[in-house]
Batch of 2 targets.
Target 1
Amino acid sequence: MEYFVLRNHSLQRFHTFRLDVIADTIVLPITKKGMVAALRDFHDKRIVVIGNGSNMIFSQSNYDSNTVFMVTTMVDKIEITDNILYVQNGVTMNKLAWFTCENSIDGYAFCEDIPGTLGGALMMNAGQWQYTIGQYVKWIEVFDKDTLQTKTIIPDADFFRYRHSKLNDMNVIVLSIGLKIEPGEYMEILDLMLEYRRERYVKQPRQYPNGGSTFKRPKDKNGDWLFIWKLFDEVGLRGFQIGDAQVSQKHPGFIVNRGNAKVAEVQMVIAECKKRVKEKFDVDIELEWRVI
Ligand SMILES: Cc1cc2nc3c(=O)[nH]c(=O)nc-3n(C[C@H](O)[C@H](O)[C@H](O)COP(=O)(O)OP(=O)(O)OC[C@H]3O[C@@H](n4cnc5c(N)ncnc54)[C@H](O)[C@@H]3O)c2cc1C
């Protein structure tokens, strides 16, 4: 068997915000070949690919058989071939960081604490500080949903931008990626990874399920970047809660699930955040999360 199918099953364990949302069909490919087979078998449905579900939120409590969720975390081969790092789309950023550290490959320490897969990371051009995954990509193997065939894309200079890649304008699913290899020092990479993790843990509300930063950083009328947490503090949003959906006390840039949050509660909290910031600062804030 190349892939499993779960019927009428909760998506709770397949995304980091942990909403108890029911899907008629969840497909779990075991291999890349299985993923391609499943993409062909279900091509007449709306396919939603879930990597680690760390940058998505659901807009419904139930999804019928017209939507097929494909969870990719078992498609996770990683190896070095011909001086290229070959990584399948379901490999987590954490696994990539540790693999490169163990093989003294430089550049990927920033990935250690980003809780997504490479597939999701390429769609979002995930990163932190000056590092983004797009900087390291040599080629991308994709499944083309129009032709139902696979093909290879070589990214051009402006393929990746801040939290965006041109993959979003194409009707494709990421299968595997070729990444650059630069030699590095094991101990230096290890120290960096641990330092990054510590820095992020002390700031972020990791004790509750969440989906990372909820909103993109907005700009003011002069084009200067603003901090979401500062805006939220000025309008009293820190700790604002409806049901179990809460603007984090620790870091208001995150909405967290205090237990059993419902889709509607998350939506109401998001709406209140947008409304208060618009009223006070005349700034429109946009979700960073993908809404499914
Ligand atoms: C605690 C926490 C901290 C975070 N910190 C950061 C950070 O520092 N920097 C940062 O950039 N992000 C951060 N994020 C957000 C998130 O981890 C990244 O955006 C990550 O790259 C998303 O990967 P994913 O596999 O979870 O994607 P998902 O949430 O599963 O999917 C995101 C989008 O990509 C699509 N997708 C997934 N896989 C594929 C594929 N194979 N082919 C085509 N489309 C696909 C999905 O359909 C969806 O539209 C954080 C999140 C959390 C919860």
Target 2
Amino acid sequence: MKLREQADEIFAWGLTERDDPVVFAWENHSRAAAKVAEEIARNCGLDTERAYAAGLLHDIGRYKGPGTGMMHAIDGYELLMEKGLPEIARICLTHSFNPREKVQEITLQDVEKGVFLKDYMSKIEFDDYDKLVQLADYMAGAHGITTIERRFCSVLWRHGLKNPAEDLKTLYKLKEYFSEKIGKDVYELFRKEIAETPFKGVPGKLSFEAAGKDIETNDEEI
Ligand SMILES: [Fe+2]
């Protein structure tokens, strides 16, 4: 089976596993990340299937439902290792930590898994696919493709950040890295999508129209 089909199949399974209102945010976010990763990859000579699969499945660990917090990274990694997809599995871990020293700030209830995560992150160097999904994650909102600025506001609103200015600089460096590779600003690739993505409410509160009714939620699960 092709990687793209395999990724679609795993994602579809994840959606049925996780049956709650927030699933809309998670689905939209993951599909947007896949699209961003694939399109940038196409424009800079990276493998588009791998980029698509990595974007779509980076948060697959959230299939266990809301409230998994940082464990979603490990749950996703374990699931994809079982499926025989180590290159995509690593993205579940690397997308959340940029720079990778950020992993030191987290504490997991499962001490053993926390040790594994920190050890793993200390031994790897980010490759272009790790970087690509870190960027795609920040251009993927709960309503679709968006800008780093908008998504950053949402993260800041919901979680607060210790060093927002530093975090923002890190993200812009990432965007700059791919803009140089493709020979134009990354946003140019997604002008239409960014313009069409609805902006509803304040950054941390979302409303969806689904099944004929408005569902209010927040996007802390993406
Ligand atoms: Fe994500």
